[in-house]
Specification:
Layout (H helix, E strand, L loop, with lengths): L3 H11 L12 E4 L8 E5 L4 H9 L4 E4 L16 H11 L3 E4 L2 H5 L4 H8 L3 E8 L5 E13 H11 L6 E3 L6 E11 L4 H6 L4 E5 L3 H9 L3 E4 L7 H17 L4 E4 L11
Parallel strand pairs: 2-3, 2-11, 3-4, 8-9, 9-10
Antiparallel strand pairs: 1-4, 5-6, 6-8, 7-10
Protein name: GTP cyclohydrolase 1 type 2 homolog
Keywords: Metal-binding
GO molecular function: metal ion binding
Length: 264
């Protein structure tokens, strides 16, 4: 079996830390990488219900997409559910590691998985970050469909109960589609510069949506949680690495639904 360092080495070969965005707290979140790893759980988010699931499953390593500690703790008062979650992780000796924006930008990473889920063809990169590293992916549909039909396809492919559509003409036929997982609304000028018919991204800000309409860009906002594709994809990666290295890892996919929103 590997220890935490050996496992993290494989993760960082796949999604190098050099790719992560500035100020992104990607990497080791909590725990001890010297410990042997027998049971790993993959998850999008590390929330109290996910931690309880990990404890019940006797997991010793959580591999997450979103960092646990976006904001530093100001105290360790365990009446705060977030602090109690940290205490539970520590008391059960569960190591937590996150691969966030480095996995978004990695070749065969998050945005490639999302593009593949939408069956985009001839996928290419677009949207460079401050280090000139591509973030988003774009590709073409096998045939042109309306913006509205595409929105319904996104709902179906990601099993959504609702999404937000920003469009001056939902009946417009489109074929060149870009996608940025998570919160990518601020990159819409690069979508325009790339000549995309539609940008798919989450968490679009109200005033940004007005600017998108003024620029006549079609945007589909399916929310942030479509990145849950990370769970199955990284489970598959970990199983491949385990087999190739004779690690005998047990890899579990979290069954907890961390989507905070409900459409009613």
């Amino acid at each position: 079996m590997p220890n935490g360092y050996e496992l993290v080495q494989k993760i960082e070969e796949y999604a190098p830390l050099s790719l992560k965005m500035q100020h992104d707290p990607t990497g080791l979140q909590l725990g001890n990488l010297n410990q042997p790893v027998r049971r790993v759980m993959t998850t999008l988010d590390v929330r109290p219900e996910v931690v309880q699931e990990a404890i019940e499953q006797k997991v010793d390593f959580i591999f997450a997409h979103h960092p646990v500690m976006f904001h530093p703790a100001h105290n360790l008062d365990t009446t705060n559910p977030q602090n109690q979650m940290y205490a539970d992780l520590l008391s059960h000796q569960i190591t937590v590691y996150a691969a966030h924006t480095n996995m978004d930008k990695a070749a065969k990473g998050m945005n490639d998985w999302l593009a593949q889920q939408l069956q985009l063809q001839q996928v290419q990169t677009f949207c460079l970050d401050q280090d000139k590293i591509p973030l988003g992916r774009w590709g073409t549909l096998s045939q042109a469909i309306s913006v509205l039909e595409l929105a319904n396809k996104v709902k179906q492919q990601f099993a959504l109960t609702g999404l937000r559509l920003i469009s001056n003409n939902p009946q417009m036929l489109v074929q060149k589609i870009g996608i940025i997982g998570g919160d990518g609304g601020k990159f819409y000028p690069q979508a325009l510069a790339s000549g995309l018919d539609v940008l798919i991204t989450g968490d679009v800000y109200y005033h940004t949506a007005h600017d998108m309409l003024a620029a006549n860009l079609n945007v589909i906002d399916p929310g942030h949680h479509i990145e849950a594709i990370f769970i199955a994809e990284t489970k598959s990666l970990l199983e491949q690495w385990s087999q190739a290295n004779n690690w005998n890892l047990t890899v579990l996919a979290s069954q907890s639904n961390t989507e905070p929103f409900k459409f009613i």
